[in-house]
């Protein structure tokens, strides 16, 4: 398969990658329920996010010390290499999140969900542009099935939000365009992370540390004029916290590390499969612990997800020239 020098073929899925993917699916799927039960309404969002980033850095450093990569960090680490590998994706992700917040205010849930899922296609597109990793016809079909499933699952969470009272111009410029740009940025950032880890051999743990630091700095700057910043000044950083608040914080931090491992070993496209599969896990856990039955959308999406994963795994792209040889 034709790929950028040093990049791993997306068709390679060893036991370790499957294990990481399974853990990420379970973590991502259970996170909403854990957060709902353990984080009170009084907790300031910025305080939980910043604490999560700190925990993520600590966990990543411990793992680096365990595998021995922390020892040679002082000799190998450079500011330019760090900014290229982690700083740029972190800045892109920060911009993407801001655009999503803007677009969600101007779009109904259905439109937002459909447009937001195009990030899976853009991830595949940028993976081809940056890493030269091609998709087979069957894999492209699998991506289409996955996007359909993702839209159904997103809509199934509730489509009460409407865009009534909003002008068509505002829908276009404050809704559609921002979410499409955010999807492009998501695909670009995911591909850049994969390029840094697979081609530049940048450790996924080190990338986690660097991206967490950059993201935290951006968030700290934003608190200077944000409502959360004012709330922290007025009530204190840990306002509303209990011992249980640390449970979802630690879980989310471990999930961030798993995202880096899955992206590094399996690629951004497969990470998309994991995230969509996790939506099904959330629906099943809601039924098991809250008695909320899966919606009809979820029941329709389930075979689509299973079929897309099977197709993508079974029919990887094969280079015809190498095949003849």
Automatic annotation (TrEMBL):
Membrane topology of the entry: Multi-pass membrane protein
Family matches, as InterPro entries: EmrE-like (IPR037185), Nuc_sug_transpt (IPR007271)
Keyword Transmembrane helix: yes
Keyword Transmembrane carried by entry: yes
GO CC annotations, alphabetized: Golgi membrane
Ranges annotated as spanning the membrane: 45-65, 110-131, 140-159, 171-193, 205-224, 236-260, 272-288, 294-312
Superkingdom assignment: Eukaryota
Subcellular location as annotated: Membrane
GO MF entry, a single one: pyrimidine nucleotide-sugar transmembrane transporter activity
Family: Belongs to the nucleotide-sugar transporter family. CMP-Sialate:CMP antiporter (TC 2.A.7.12) subfamily.
Protein's name according to its UniProt entry: CMP-sialic acid transporter 5
């Amino acid at each position: 398969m034709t790929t950028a020098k040093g990049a791993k073929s997306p068709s390679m899925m060893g036991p370790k990658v499957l294990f990481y993917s399974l853990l990420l699916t379970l973590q991502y799927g259970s996170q909403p329920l854990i957060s709902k039960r353990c984080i009170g309404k009084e907790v300031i969002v910025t305080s939980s996010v910043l604490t999560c980033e700190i925990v993520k850095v600590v966990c990543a450093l411990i793992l680096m010390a365990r595998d021995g990569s922390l020892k040679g960090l002082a000799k190998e680490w450079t500011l330019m290499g760090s900014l290229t590998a982690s700083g740029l994706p972190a800045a892109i992700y920060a911009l993407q999140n801001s655009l999503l917040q803007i677009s969600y205010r101007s779009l109904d849930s259905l439109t937002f969900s459909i447009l937001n899922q195009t990030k899976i296609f853009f991830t595949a597109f940028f993976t081809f542009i940056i890493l030269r990793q091609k998709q087979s016809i069957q894999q492209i079909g699998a991506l289409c099935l996955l996007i359909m499933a993702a839209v159904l699952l997103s809509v199934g969470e509730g489509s009460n939000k409407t865009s009534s009272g909003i002008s068509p111009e505002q829908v276009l410029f404050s809704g559609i365009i921002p979410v499409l740009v955010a999807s492009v940025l998501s695909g670009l950032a995911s591909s850049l992370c994969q390029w840094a880890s697979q081609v530049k051999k940048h450790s996924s743990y080190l990338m986690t540390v660097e991206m967490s630091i950059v993201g935290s700095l951006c968030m700290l700057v934003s608190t200077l004029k944000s409502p959360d910043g004012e709330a922290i000044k007025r009530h204190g950083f840990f306002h509303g916290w209990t011992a249980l608040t640390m449970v979802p914080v630690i879980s989310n931090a471990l999930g961030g590390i798993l995202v880096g491992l899955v992206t590094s070993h399996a690629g951004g496209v497969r990470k998309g499969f994991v995230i969509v599969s996790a939506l099904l896990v959330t629906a099943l856990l809601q039924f098991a612990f809250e008695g909320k039955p899966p919606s009809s959308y979820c029941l329709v999406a389930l075979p689509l997800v299973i079929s897309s994963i099977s197709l993508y795994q079974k029919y990887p792209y094969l280079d015809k020239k190498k095949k003849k040889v």
